[in-house]
Amino acid sequence: MKATNPVDFQYARSLIEASLDPLITISPEGKITDMNEALANITGMTREQLTGTDFFDYFTEPQKAREVYQEVFSKGFVTDYPLTIRDHKLTDVLFNGSVYLNGRGEVLGAVVVARDITEQKRVATELTEAIVFAELATGLAEEAKEKAECATQIAENAVKAKQQFLSNMSHEIRTPMNAIIGFTKVLLKTDVSSKQKEYLTAIKMSGDALIVLINDILDLAKVDAGKMVFEQVPFKMALSISAMIHLFETKIQEKNLELIKEYDVRIPDVLVGDPVRLHQIIINLVSNAVKFTTKGKITVSVNLLSEDEGTATIEFAVKDTGIGIPGKKIGKIFENFQQASSDTSRLYGGTGLGLAIVKQLLEPQGGSIRVKSKVDEGSTFSFILTFQKTKADAETEADILELDLEIKNIKVLVVEDIPLNQLLMKTLLDDYGFERDIAANGKIAVEKLRNKSYDIILMDLQMPEMNGFEATEYIRNTMNSQIPIIALTADVTTVDLAKCKSVGMNDYIAKPVDERLLYSKIVGLVKKPSQIQLSHKEEIDNSETKKSKCIDLDYLITRTKSNPILMMEMISLYLEQTPPLVSLMKQSMHDKDWNSLYSSVHKMIPSFAIMGISIDFENMAKKVQEFASTQKQAEGIQDLVLQLGNVCTQACSELKEEFKRIKNASL
Prior knowledge:
Radius of gyration: 43 Å
Distance between the termini: 121 Å
């Protein structure tokens, strides 16, 4: 055998020692023939001690190590074979090795490199643990989410249950109160002794106090549940304030107080906002002032603070010379059921809800309530609201008419299931000199309408067999009758009013019934058909003869610069696209295809503004769109879809006439 060149030996040794991982040479018999310092270090043994020993003795699993060495010599190589070196810390390694040959191609032994993977294994283990923990955390998060969703659903159900309970209870309480207050008013008109009149007045005052309590609790419940809806409609500010103050004239006269109204004439005639909520705020504040003032005056002031092209910012203030509020109590009077002192309720009455409701009506509109007060000198409550300016005409309530004994030829059908209320309505209508019939439910009312003609219907909403909504829908759609219908409702909620309008009722009146207001509404609808409109801002009469126009082409005229060709083209596009969209919308609602419903309504919305259709219908469409997206708050959606279909159909009819007119004018 040729002697080994010392240079070659040094070169080979350098290569072996260059490996940071343990490197071993093994004979075909499995004996260690050579190794590098890395192996000696990891085993804690010297080179001399390791040489000639069995390769597989240094591993935690000798049999697996034996298999490695055998596999190297049988296959000629081995790759990534996992073993653990038995040292002071049990080092995990991956073995990679191959045989080496002499000049004649005979196998002399094998070279195996053990790559230390302890750190990699640790990282892998930690990663696995992290994944397990992440999956566990995800599971816990999902469980927590499910619990949260369950809790949310329980809370929502509780709110709905509370709302339903309050609505039902208010109806049940209002029904007997309606009769008590109504008959008390009737008796006060008759010849009674002074002592009887005193007792009757006490009964009426107690009934009025109970109604205030019911209204306060209902309003608070609606605010708490987030159900309070704020409208944006044109209204006349001056008339609204005057109407609110007018309600307190009798009470103020009884207490010998002076009422002063200060109104800034610079305020625009018509503004856009929510007059109903403004009325509630003003009524609560003036009612408070009247309640706590025994002498002196009450001043209601309305001043323009600033305005620009689009808005007007107005400050409202109600000042009294009443008992005042102690400084330490001012911070609490806006909380639910809180009053300035423990004996306030006993001395002055009330629930302690009025100011809480005012606060919660103002804040969603961007306003806030402020108060200045001195004990025994009086209080000033003020707030600031910003309103949009508009050139549109305000839609106002018809004035309350005085009783005209000459108007007697009016036939009224009263649809009411409670005998006490039936008797009260008979009494009131007899006082007016009107002819009246009574139906105990909607089904009986429909039969009576088939056999006799009436001028107007007073329709209770909650009845057995067929309720007021169902009866009105049947009268409008099946009987095709446009007889005026006034809803009699004990629960004046936004949902109720929207539903009244959607089924085709012309107006509503709250129980207990104000006899002058009832008379005005009956006469206004029967004797003044040209002025028929829903008191809640929307005309619902579906008859072609009485229906007001639902389109306004001012925007279209402006956009097209009065170009008749462009106008006809845009009208044609609307007439082409709208009927299929209406059909799709109705069919989607019927099929509960929410994606299709959302899509059809989404395509309809832009055309409302272009064709001058009221923004109220655009808001309706957005509500339907929101429902289609979330499937939440489904109540009344079917009615809104029907109403949107009706207004679009009416718009198409009107636009066809406009198209003809424009075409003829351009010839």
